[in-house]
């Protein structure tokens, strides 16, 4: 297998994250979290457009009716990048001023899941996971996390993955998922990243049901079998890859976001914080479900 890893959008973002492939429009949406910048990358023409939201944004999804749904510093929002129109949905943690939303994903029915975390030293496990339904109701599922991350669903939608990136935790869990109600069952340990250099960051699942993890701080990506076995390790040109997402016309390009701040050695990674693509994997991803509202 010969891989081609390319820097395709040299943004040098503080915290590049939140990649979501829109298979209808054939574009990749992604973020610079603390800068509150939303990017739209068009691989056909190589254009990376920038939209400013005005506050940190942790994750997003494309809406079935158009525009985006965001999980941001001040809760869930609808946002139209073309007009700049913002519409607040709900802020479930308005009482926690130091918290913000981080990673998220949509399930097979188009519900939007996102987790929160405490900004700053992050020593307190103040994060929780929330589900935003199509009727715009919000449900908190589980609390007690430092850095919620890694949300992704199996191809048939019956398993949910999530993780905690904290250096003292660095674990990925999996749980059975009731697709009718959107309710996860009791989690079980899926993979302990103390076995590898990189801590768990963003994740996605491919068409064969394998979980892809960005090993933040470890210069690597990992492909894990549904049983939690390491099937593939990919060395990256940046220390802090953050979110893998399959896209492209054949869903066979793996896009990877990255962090440009707080690096060990800046001189070794001039494109840190940029967007990368990986081709030649002989693996395809899954279409991302749009938010049902």
For the record, give the distance between the C-alpha atoms at the N and C termini, rounded to a whole number: 41 Å
Helix content: under 10%
Averaging pLDDT over every residue, what do you get?
97
Q: What is the overall shape?
A: globular
Structural class, judged by helices and strands? mainly beta
The helix/strand order is EEEEEEEEEEEEEEEEEEEEEEEEE
Biggest beta sheet summary: 5 strands, antiparallel
Unreliable residue stretches? none
Number of strands: 25
Radius of gyration: 17 Å
Number of helical elements: 0
Estimate the strand proportion. Answer: over 45%
Give the arrangement of secondary structure elements:
Layout: E1 4-9, E2 16-22, E3 27-32, E4 37-42, E5 47-52, E6 57-62, E7 68-72, E8 75-79, E9 86-90, E10 99-106, E11 112-118, E12 127-132, E13 138-145, E14 148-153, E15 159-164, E16 171-178, E17 183-184, E18 188-192, E19 199-205, E20 211-216, E21 220-224, E22 230-235, E23 241-247, E24 253-258, E25 275-279
Antiparallel strand pairs: 1-25, 2-3, 3-4, 4-5, 6-7, 7-8, 8-9, 10-11, 11-12, 12-13, 14-15, 15-16, 16-17, 16-18, 19-20, 20-21, 21-22, 23-24, 24-25
């Amino acid at each position: 297998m010969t891989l081609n890893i390319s820097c395709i959008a040299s943004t040098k973002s503080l915290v590049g994250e939140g990649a979501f492939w829109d298979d209808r429009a054939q574009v990749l949406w992604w973020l610079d979290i603390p800068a509150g910048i939303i990017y739209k990358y068009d691989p056909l023409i190589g254009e990376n457009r920038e939209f400013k939201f005005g506050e940190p944004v942790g994750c997003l999804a494309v809406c079935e009716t158009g525009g985006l749904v965001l999980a941001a510093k001040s809760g869930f929002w609808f946002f139209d990048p073309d007009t700049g129109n913002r519409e607040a949905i709900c802020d479930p943690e308005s009482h926690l001023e130091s918290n913000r939303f981080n990673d998220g994903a949509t399930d097979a029915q188009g519900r939007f899941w996102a987790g929160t975390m405490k900004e700053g030293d992050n020593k307190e496990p103040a994060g929780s996971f929330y589900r935003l339904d199509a009727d715009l109701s919000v449900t908190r599922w589980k609390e007690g996390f430092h850095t919620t991350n890694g949300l992704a669903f199996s191809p048939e939608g019956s398993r949910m993955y999530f993780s905690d990136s904290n250096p003292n935790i660095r674990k990925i869990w999996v749980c059975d998922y009731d697709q009718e109600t959107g309710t996860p069952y009791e989690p079980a340990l899926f993979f302990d990243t103390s076995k590898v250099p990189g801590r768990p960051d963003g994740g996605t699942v491919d068409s064969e049901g394998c979980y892809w993890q960005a090993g933040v701080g470890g210069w690597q990506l990992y492909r894990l079998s549904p049983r939690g076995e390491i099937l593939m390790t990919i060395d990256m040109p940046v220390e802090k890859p953050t979110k893998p997402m399959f896209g492209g016309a054949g869903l066979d390009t793996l896009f990877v976001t990255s962090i440009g701040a707080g690096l060990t050695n800046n001189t070794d990674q001039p494109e840190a914080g940029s967007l990368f693509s990986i081709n030649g994997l002989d693996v395809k991803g899954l279409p991302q479900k749009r938010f049902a509202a």
